[in-house]
Give the backbone structure.
Amino acid sequence: MKVSIIGASGYTGVELLRILHNHPNVEILFLSSQTKEDISIDKIYPHLLKVYENKFVSQQKLLDAAEQTDVIFTALPHGHSLAIGKLLQATKTKLIDLGADYRFCDESIYEKWYKLEHTHKNSGAVFGLSELNYEAIKNAKILANPGCYPTASILSLYPLIKADLIDVDTIIIDAASGTTGAGRQLRLSSHFSEVFENFTAYGVTNHRHTPEIEMFLASAFSKNITITFTPHLVPMARGILTTAYAKIKNGVTLQNLNDAYKIYADKYFIRLIGQNSPATKNTRGSNFVDIGWFLDERTNRVVALAALDNLVKGASGQAVQNMNIMFNFPQETGLNFSPVYP
């Protein structure tokens, strides 16, 4: 099958290329970059020398030949994929968007948090949380790949809400990410001298992944859910660690928690580690997410933790997993590789 990538020069775009290189059913057709047209990708990313020889083309050239492509991945800042989705709607080509443009079934939430008009309403886009939205993903025309923080947060909390073990009004999530979560563009906050030997919160009370977590959990359980979400920047390149807290309901035991997480027993990319603390290094470079949980009987709270690689399971790896579902390949195709350690 033919695959093209718009925004292939960013971190998630180049991570897609790394993963798709070993996918047995994929041929890369076009790569586009707004600023790198006619430049060979190995000139931008020397680690791809002798791996890819493709030259970047303009986005317009790629879209003019869109019907030659089975699926287009867009790895673009928010606001840039909506016109592409509208253009592809009447074609056979499927779209997997790694940005935020299609993540909200209620477009007014997108407009409120992203301060942009949503210009492709009623698109029928499907939220691509692979393990929890499989049936809808199978038939998706436009696939909204989830954010990295929401993937870890939702997967760690979903079993507890499904089993009715927690008071959803008490959910607090502390999260931490490596610097690649901010993308490849230059900004002061991600300079080495700013990040090194530093640990800081950002987006306090207003991070844009907050409504994404609330939306999916609310839609899954038909109840309004409001959370407190605080992300932090960690001086490392890759990795996400989320720590979620919630009050447990009366009579909930550790065995109840253990039983709740069994819903993931057959999910290949979810590794349940029980009463152990996940570590980002154990998932680095892989599509795995490690989930651990603890019962604090003193405070009647559960602590649920998840670790994943923000560029793989938090972005490009889950996008490929979703592509596999959409095109009826085994989910682990092209993704069945171990984490990079140490």
Summary: The two ends are 35 Å apart (CA to CA).
